[in-house]
Write a structure and sequence with these properties.
single chain; 377 residues; alpha+beta; Alpha-Beta Plaits; 5-stranded mixed sheet; two-stranded antiparallel ribbon; 9% strand; GGDEF_dom; diguanylate cyclase activity
C-alpha cells in the first residue's frame, strides 16, 4: 500500500464515520443525546493523558486548539467565520513546522505562551478593542467584511500549505493535521446542530487518539534510524512462522573501523544506505534491524527458493554504492561491503536455532574474507 494512502486511510475513515453519525443523531436514544455534547471533552482528556504519557507536546497543543472554537459563543455574537477557528487552523499549521520537544520544558511553555497571545488577540478583536475597518476601502468585495475575508484567506492558505506538507511527508502527524483542518472547515461551513457538531468534533479528537496509538506502536516496533522494523518486531514474527522459511543475518564489514575513521554520523549514513538497499527487496523478504550494524532477513513462501540469489544481489548492490565522506579540504567517496549467513529451517527446528545457524554462517563469511554469502550447513 502506498505510504500516502496508508497514512490517510484510518484517519479519513474516522472522520467519515463521525460525519455519518452526525446525520443520524436524531435517531440516537435520549441518554446518548444527553451525553453526546460531553464526548469531545471526554475524548480530549484521553488525548491529553496519552500526550502526557508519551511526552508529545505538539499533540497536547493540538488538543487545545481543536477545543478552542467551542468556546467562541461565550465571547462573541459575530457571524461566521469563527475567529477562534482561524486561530485553531493557523496553530495547527504552525505545529507542522515545529519539532517535537515535549511540553514540561521551556519550549512547551513558549509555544503555549505564543498560542495564548493569538487567543488574546482574537478576543480583543471580538470585543472591539482592535479592528480592520480602516482597511475596508482597499477591498471592493460585496457582502463580506474585511475581517471575514482575512480569516478565510488565512484558513485557506493554511489548508493548502498543510496539504502540500502532507503530500511531501505523508506521516501520521501531517495526516492528523490535514484531517483536523478539513473537519474544522466542515464545521465552519455547514449548519450543524449542537449534537452533529459534537459528533464531528469527537471524530476530530479520535483522529489524534489514533495518531498517538499508532505513533507509540511505531516507536516500539520500528527502528528510528533506518525506519526498518526492529528486533522486537522480528521476535513477534518468529512466533508465527510457517513450516518452510529461511533466515539470513547481515553484518556491515569493518563498521567499527569505519566509524573511527569517518565519524558516527557517516556510520549512521552507512546503516541508512544499507537499509534502503534491502528495502528494495521487501517483496522477497521481510527486513529487520537486529541491532548495531546487524540486520535480519526473513524469507517465507515462494521467496525461499530465491533467497540465496536475492542475498547475492543485495551484497553486490551495497558494495557498488558510493558514500561521500568528503571534508572541507578533500573530496572522497568510499564503499562498504557486507557479509551474510543464510539458514533454511530443518524439520522440527526452533526459530532461534535457525537464527543461530544463520549467525554462525555469517561469521564463517567473515573468516573467509568478508563480502560473501555463506549457506549454513
Amino acid at each position: 500500500m502506498p505510504q500516502r494512502t496508508g497514512s490517510l486511510l484510518i484517519p479519513l475513515f474516522i472522520l467519515l464515520a463521525g460525519l455519518f453519525a452526525s446525520v443520524y443523531t436524531t435517531q440516537f436514544p435520549a441518554l446518548a443525546l444527553d451525553l453526546l455534547p460531553w464526548l469531545p471533552y471526554v475524548l480530549s482528556v484521553v488525548m491529553v493523558f496519552m500526550a502526557w504519557h508519551f511526552n508529545r507536546g505538539k499533540v497536547l497543543l493540538a488538543g487545545g486548539l481543536l477545543l478552542l472554537p467551542t468556546f467562541y459563543p461565550y465571547v462573541s455574537n459575530h457571524d461566521l467565520p469563527n475567529s477562534f477557528t482561524t486561530i485553531a487552523a493557523i496553530g495547527l499549521g504552525l505545529l507542522l513546522l515545529l519539532r517535537e520537544r515535549g511540553f514540561f520544558n521551556r519550549y512547551g511553555f513558549n509555544r503555549i505562551l505564543f498560542l495564548g497571545m493569538l487567543v488574546a488577540w482574537s478576543m480583543s478583536y471580538e470585543k472591539g478593542v482592535i479592528n480592520f475597518n480602516f482597511l475596508a476601502v482597499l477591498v471592493p468585495v460585496v457582502n463580506i467584511t474585511l475581517s471575514s475575508l482575512l480569516c478565510w484567506l488565512m484558513i485557506g492558505f493554511t489548508v493548502m500549505t498543510s496539504l502540500i506538507f502532507w503530500w511531501r511527508h505523508a506521516d501520521g502527524f501531517s495526516t492528523a493535521v490535514l484531517i483536523s483542518l478539513v473537519s474544522l472547515l466542515l464545521i465552519e461551513c455547514m449548519s450543524f446542530t449542537a449534537h452533529q457538531d459534537a459528533a464531528v468534533r469527537s471524530a476530530q479528537i479520535l483522529v489524534w487518539v489514533w495518531f498517538v496509538v499508532s505513533e507509540s506502536h511505531r516507536m516500539a516496533y520500528r527502528d528510528e534510524l533506518t525506519q526498518l522494523p526492529s528486533r522486537r518486531a522480528l521476535n513477534e514474527a518468529m512466533l508465527a512462522l510457517p513450516r518452510h522459511y529461511a533466515l539470513a543475518m547481515l553484518d556491515v564489514d569493518h563498521f567499527k573501523k569505519f566509524n573511527d575513521s569517518y565519524g558516527h554520523d557517516k556510520g549512521d549514513d552507512v546503516l541508512k544506505q544499507v537499509a534502503r538497499v534491502m528495502q528494495r527487496y521487501s517483496g522477497s523478504a521481510s527486513v529487520y534491524r537486529y541491532g548495531g550494524e546487524e540486520f535480519t532477513l526473513l524469507f517465507k513462501g515462494r521467496g525461499i527458493e530465491h533467497a540465496e540469489v536475492v542475498l547475492e544481489q543485495i551484497r553486490e548492490e551495497i558494495h557498488l554504492q558510493r558514500l561521500d565522506v568528503s571534508t572541507e579540504t578533500k573530496h572522497k567517496e568510499v564503499s562498504v561491503s557486507v557479509s551474510m549467513g543464510l539458514a533454511f529451517v530443518n524439520t522440527g527446528e526452533a526459530p532461534n536455532d535457525v537464527l543461530k545457524r544463520a549467525d554462525q554462517a555469517l561469521y564463517q563469511a567473515k573468516r573467509k574474507g568478508r563480502n560473501k554469502v555463506i549457506l549454513a550447513s
